[in-house]
UniProtKB/TrEMBL annotation:
InterPro entries: Aldolase_TIM (IPR013785), HMGL (IPR043594), PYR_CT (IPR000891). Belongs to the HMG-CoA lyase family. CDD domains: DRE_TIM_HMGL (cd07938). Keywords: Lyase, Metal-binding. Residues 7-273 form the Pyruvate carboxyltransferase domain. This is Hydroxymethylglutaryl-CoA lyase. The keyword Metal-binding applies.
Length: 302
């Protein structure tokens, strides 16, 4: 399989990165970082999550963030993560039509994350699909590659999960390595199975960088034909309900790599690095991205 000559990056820092930061980041600061991400050319951004503010107080300004960016940039593709029906309703009322609904593949993490069994989450998804026929749902398959509570997740288990979603009409699935424990062999083998079997599902990957393998694993995924990769500014990230979760694949590092192998992203690396620096200087988060002070002598295509 040839690597696609264009990869779509979905920036998830404002959601996956900010959610694990305890100290409240002002809404103005969040807007500034997201504006910078947009300025660098990113067209698909997960802005926030419509979750219980009791569970994740950082996301209490979801309405304001969503409203602001949807009004200002109607041409861009914004999404938000939701854990339940209530979250979909809130996001919908703000005008969002791209929703990432999360169900873990493993029971242990689904319970810890959204306080439901996997079955209960799927039943809720059915109701969402029936009541909101005009939304595009991306199913976030958390713990696809392993669970901090239940351990290994077999390919068969992932396959049954995907089949169940497929039968409900889901055609976009984001395979999440929630705690960053996947490896190139596993990515290769699982994608071989899924891409062969579900030709009309668009699979995305979302890989945390716990063992410094986020880049390699994402590279293997694009070599298998994946076109949509999630990444996070500065490598910010971590699920508050998954012990051991660390930062994500860093967007700027990934853009740099893609630039160097002539894969187009439409993102300006230097602008992105500058906003990653701004983020690191002002927001006290977990960053797995690497060197930020690059020499002007190092050039990039974009
Ligand atoms: N938005 C805002 N408030 C919500 C909500 C939502 N989507 N869903 C539930 N709530 C409120 C309820 O109204 C209730 O408030 P009250 O105590 O004032 O009545 C409270 O939250 C608890 O509701 P309940 O339905 O009992 O939820 P729960 O305690 O079983 O928790 C979730 C379930 C899904 C709401 C919660 O686990 C959650 O928000 N998880 C987020 C997980 C996450 O973001 N993980 C990281 C990304 S993968
Ligand atoms: Zn994540």
């Amino acid at each position: 399989m040839e690597i696609n000559n264009r990869i779509e990056i979905i920036e998830v820092g404002p959601r996956d990165g900010f959610q694990s930061i305890k100290e409240f980041i002002s809404t103005e600061e969040k807007k500034k970082i997201i504006e910078g991400i947009i300025e660098s050319g990113v067209k698909k951004i997960q802005l926030t999550s419509f979750v219980s503010p009791k569970h994740i107080p950082q996301m209490q300004d979801a309405e304001e963030i969503a409203k602001y960016f949807l009004n200002k940039y109607p041409e861009l593709e914004f999404s938000a993560l939701v854990p339940n029906y209530r979250g979909v309703k809130r996001a919908y009322e703000m005008g969002l039509r791209n929703i990432a609904y999360v169900i873990s593949v493993s029971e242990g993490h689904n319970k810890a994350n959204v306080n439901r069994s996997v079955d209960e989450s799927f039943v809720e998804l059915e109701k969402i699909l029936a009541d909101f026929p005009d939304i595009n749902i991306t199913l976030d398959a958390a713990t696809t590659f392993g669970c901090p509570f239940d351990g290994e997740v077999s390919y068969d288990k992932v396959d049954s999960y995907v089949k169940r979603a497929y039968d409900l009409g889901i055609r976009t699935i984001n395979l999440c390595d929630t705690i960053g424990i996947s490896n190139p062999k596993q990515i290769d083998e699982l994608l071989t199975i899924l891409l062969e079997k579900y030709k009309d599902i668009e699979f995305q990957v979302h890989i945390h960088d716990t063992r410094n393998m986020g880049m390699l694993n994402s590279y293997i995924a694009i070599k298998k034909g994946i076109k949509h990769v999630q990444a996070s500014l500065g490598g910010m990230g971590g699920c508050p309900f998954a012990p051991g979760a660390s930062g994500n694949l860093s967007t700027e590092d990934f853009v740099y790599m893609l630039d160097k192998i002539n894969i187009e992203t439409g993102i300006n690396f230097k602008k992105l690095v500058n906003i990653a620096k701004e983020c690191r200087d002002n927001i006290n988060g977990v960053y797995s991205g690497h060197q930020i002070n690059i020499s002007d002598k190092i050039s990039c295509n974009s």
